[in-house]
Amino acid sequence: MIYTGGTIGMRPGHRGLEPGHDFEQRARVQLDRLPAERRAALPRFHCLAYRDPIDSSNTRPEHWARIAHDVLAHQHEYDGFVILHGTDTLAWTAASLSWQLAGLNKPIIVSGAQQPLEVESGDALANLEQALRFAACPGLAEVAVAFGGRLLRGDAARKWDTHAHQGFASPNANWLGEWLDHAPVLHVTRSRPPEGVCRPMPWPLEAPPRVARLALWPGIDSDMMARLLTPELQGLVLEVWGSGNVPEDPALLALLSTATRRGCLIVAISQCPHGSLAMTSYATGHALRTAGVIDGGAMTPEAVFTRLSHLLSLGLSPQQCRHHLVP
Ligand code: ASN
Questions:
Q1: Closest CA to 297 of 255, 248, 252, 237
Q2: How far is the CA of 229 from the centre of ligand 1 (A)?
Q3: Cβ within 8 Å of residue 48, ≥6 positions away
Q4: Which residues lie below 8 Å from residue 87, measured CB to CB, with a gap of 6+?
Q5: For a pocket test of ligand 1, which of 7, 160, 165 has the largest count of ligand atoms closer than 8 A to its C-beta?
Q6: Which residues line ligand 1 at a C-beta cut-off of 6 Å?
Q7: Is residue 309 marked as binding?
Q8: Which of the four pLDDT bands, split at 50, 70 and 90, describes residue 282?
Q9: Where is the active site (predicted)?
């Protein structure tokens, strides 16, 4: 178990909740409150508690690399891993780990909580128990998010509710499993086959690639977009309308086209949380294809952003990245 911070381990401070320490001891005190038979069903675990736990709103790509590095450093010692994380950017970390650790073939369960461990009737103890039990499921061989009784694909999960115990959803992917009668149940017993380029590999820390995210709004013009589409930009997650539409503005489309021609990878996904792109349905969508924009299908913004970053950090050419972008 790796504790990185987040509300699950927070304590009240002067300005509000702050990342707390002594996590392992506090977690074991809580787990001891479970009924004897559920305690007995927990796997044995060791805990690596980061000495600098953070609120996950402070997460940077370096943190994703650090977690992947720590998992890989201990991969032969454990049958599974639990990563405890703040919920605000948990979906980004889960997506990043699903690329960085593709092919590890062990359960890597990312979890956290909406309330701290010590809150009576909070969700922390339940999520901790569920994460540990799912991490001990031999049939699971990928990164997944265990939260509020659901097990979601690591690259499809999204934070869905600011407060509810069921704080995560995967609107475009079926659950991998769920918690039923105090036991983990897997709906999919085999993970995806490992992908060619993605062998387990921590992100190179030195220079994270320059990737940005842009959601269109009515009235966006090419001047505004040009500020983001600088020559240094290597990748862009472009969140467009509906099934893949953009404004019919020749200057805006020319800007996208110039960027893709110089090798910037632009991936379009929908601003609708549910459903996939179909860039050929409308004339306004067809223009995106002509501009060299890649169809991101039903991927989440977190998944596209981290996948782009991962592929670019491997030093692959834009053509190779393009080939591997949409699984
Ligand atoms: N701000 C917290 C975090 O992301 C929220 C949480 O964990 N529930 O670290």
A1: 237
A2: 31
A3: 1, 2, 3, 70, 74
A4: 6, 7, 56, 112, 113, 114, 147, 159, 167, 168
A5: 7
A6: 5-7, 55-57, 86-88, 112, 114
A7: no
A8: confident
A9: 7, 87
Which pLDDT does position 194 carry in this prediction?
A: 56
| Residues 80, 133 contacting (CB under 8 angstroms) | no
**Residue-wise DSSP of 185-214:** EES--S-PPPPSS--S-PPPSS----EEEE
| Catalytic residue selected from 4, 59, 87, 89 | 87
Q: How far, in Å, CA of 73 to CA of 70, rounded?
A: 5
Task: Using alpha carbons, select from 101, 111, 176 the residue that is nearest to residue 139.
Answer: 176
- Fold: same for 2-186 and 211-325: yes
Residue 197: the pLDDT is 61
| Average pLDDT of the residues of the chain | 94
Domain segments of the chain: what residues? Answer: 2-186, 211-325
**Tens-place pLDDT, residues 31-86:** 999 999 999 999 999 999 999 999 999 999 999 999 999 999 999 999 999 999 99
pTM summary value: 0.96
Say whether 162 is catalytic.
no
> Cα dihedral angle (230, 301, 70, 48), rounded to 10 degrees?
130
Q: What is the full DSSP assignment across 98-153? A: HHHTTT--S-EEEE--SS-TTSTT-SHHHHHHHHHHHHT-TT--SEEEEETTEEEE
Q: Class assignment of domain 211-325?
A: alpha beta
pLDDT score of 69: 95
3-state class (DSSP) for residue 261 = helix
7 is catalytic: yes
Which CATH code, of 2.60.130.10, 3.30.70.940, 3.30.360.10, 3.40.50.1170, is assigned to 2-186? Answer: 3.40.50.1170
